[in-house]
């Protein structure tokens, strides 16, 4: 039973199959001759013209009109007659090969060099030793109907996915196959990710998953990390939460405070926070007037104490300068500090006399040592 099945082709026996193929070869041979005959007659009606040539001015029909009339009169399409004419022009009768279909002749007609074309048809591909339409297409670099090699299959997929809608569907299916993605080159994966995340909504959805992967973040360049943090902390609320968390890390806080601007901003923020808290207390707390009176007394005592401490310190230190020669740099430093002291004393007197404690820009810069 197995031997009978093995000897059958489709629903016929192997011997009957060979009989059918022999008959079909005769028909193909006849069809090939017929197609070449159509092409030869079409060439007789409208010979091929050299590139850039022109038809006689008195001819009644253009090439296309002539071929259309022939096609209509014999019941074929214009494209069939046009292809037959062109194929016949590429294969003189003495170069046409028996046993090779008109379809193969038409495909190999695409070989531009005449000598190469004539030699190629005499050397069918091995191991079969005969031409098929797909083998002819492979020879001239066209897409085959039954792709075999990976390159041919890729080309077929590209052809089928020429439509953007089809390509999008295919791409989505392929991206869900881990074994496929594992074989994609890293640079192509990067390009794919960039294309897929051009939509801001998609990019926003993908970014958090990347940022939660330590092994990914570890491979990002420091400069790029800084850019990411800056972008993510443009919102003041987010920036405040992140900054608070970072300043709880001793090493980070120490490096941040080494920056003069950052340190000044932190100090300014502390003073401002204290001022706001004090204003809120004074505006909302019923005991604020009593506390304010006590504060004024404390401020008076603090100011007197500060003056006394300065005078006492100067009285103790200045006598030690007797017979001591200071360098020019040391003298410059002392004079600079004396100027600050004098400016401060003027400010104190103004505050005492007028109650105004605001300082102008020049005084502020002087007190800050600028």
Could you walk me through the main structural features you see in this protein, from its secondary elements to its overall organization?
By secondary structure, this protein is mostly helical. It contains 20 helices and two strands. Among the domains are: 135 residues, no CATH class; 36 residues, no CATH class; 42 residues. The protein has a two-stranded antiparallel ribbon with strand order 1-2. β1 and β2 form a beta hairpin. The longest helix has 32 residues.
The shape is: rod-shaped
Q: In this structure, how is the largest beta sheet organized? A: 2 strands, antiparallel
Helix content: over 70%
Pick out the low-confidence regions. none
As laid out across the biggest beta sheet, the strand order is 1-2
Instruction: Let me know the number of strands.
Output: 2
How confident is the prediction overall: mean pLDDT?
81
End-to-end Cα distance, whole Å, is 107 Å
**SSE sequence, one letter per element:** HEEHHHHHHHHHHHHHHHHHHH
Radius of gyration, rounded? 48 Å
Query: Beta-strand percentage?
Result: under 5%
What's the helix count? 20
- The helix-and-strand class reads mainly alpha
Entry summary:
The protein is mainly α.
Describe the secondary structure blueprint for this structure.
Elements: H1 2-6, E1 8-9, E2 12-13, H2 14-45, H3 63-74, H4 78-90, H5 102-108, H6 114-121, H7 133-140, H8 150-160, H9 164-175, H10 178-181, H11 186-196, H12 200-211, H13 214-217, H14 222-232, H15 236-247, H16 250-257, H17 260-284, H18 288-317, H19 328-354, H20 361-367
Antiparallel strand pairs: 1-2
